[in-house]
Amino acid sequence: MLVFSNQRLGPASEVFVGDETASQILRSVADAARPRASAMWEHELVRWLDEQSAQAAKIQAIDVGDIAFTPQNFERQRRFLIEAIERARETSEHPRVLAAWAVLIEGYPSDSVQFGRRWIWHSSI
Which residues contact 84 (CB under 8 A, 6 or more apart)? Predict the structure, then answer.
């Protein structure tokens, strides 16, 4: 079981999914983002999503705060991710879960973005 969350919005802002569903969702978003990735952060996001997909059975939660947004590019980065989720929804078997995750990401406040935030790589833990 994996939880998609936005801790800034509280415990009511959680989406619980099985490991296989989580893996499929993360892979579909990576696949939707990959062809449009041009900036370094966008390529890192795709790699991170791929890695999270491969490690989904070992991960208990993915919080919006785990995404290494940068303060100066937050709005653009968040929009890139939400648009990738929207494209993934078009062919996914789990469009409602993707829509719920997009709402969590959309609700993440810009003042919560930390300077110097780094990606968490579970494969190296």
Answer: 29, 32, 33, 36
